[in-house]
Amino acid sequence: MQVNRIVTLFSNLIYPSFCPGCRRFIDDATPLCSECLAALTPTVSQDIEIGRSRSIAIYSVTRYEGVVQRLVRAKNHSQRTAAWQLGELVAQRAPCPWDLFDGVVPVPLHWTRWWRRGFNQAEIMARAVCMHHALPLFLPLTRTKQTKFQAEIGGVAPRLDNVADAFAFVNEQQKLLCSGRSLLLVDDVVTSGATVVALARLLYRAGAKRVSVVVSARG
Questions:
Q1: Structural domain for 70, as ranges
Q2: What does the longest C-alpha to C-alpha distance in the chain come to?
Q3: DSSP assignment, residue 182?
């Protein structure tokens, strides 16, 4: 689409046009150079059952390794550009049926981590996805308590316990906006899937018609 091309050109004026994998200059609209793109290990979509005949599809670009792993870790050093590049990568390379969705929902970050980092990487990624695919951005969710990092916890059940009751709707109006809609959660990495399962259950209870997930990498 011409609009998407204009948006991409505009974003390239804001964010550096170099490959985060090899630092090579990129003179087109791709988030990585052709060599680094070719080095990515493709993944297939994964369905997770979440009870009551509900499931979520997880669409990811690659495994959690190499250049994508470095970009994900860069967010811990307050690198907004890395988050945007991950969003560009997801928007352009994830095998996601974009036209099935009514809106994009970033995984919320607790305010204490937002304060330390200065941004929510999932929201930056979601904005890149919305710009590319002309989808509305929804911000209906908040993280109500600070939890341990999921990577520090072993096993699916303990991770589910870690995020139990950790999320809520911002208000009743935002909850109502999710009813009857097909929503796409956005995050940087999915490992066990505990976080997105907790969020999907919350959205389904609010009446969402479909909930799926798109990420840059699967661990």
A1: 2-218
A2: 49
A3: E
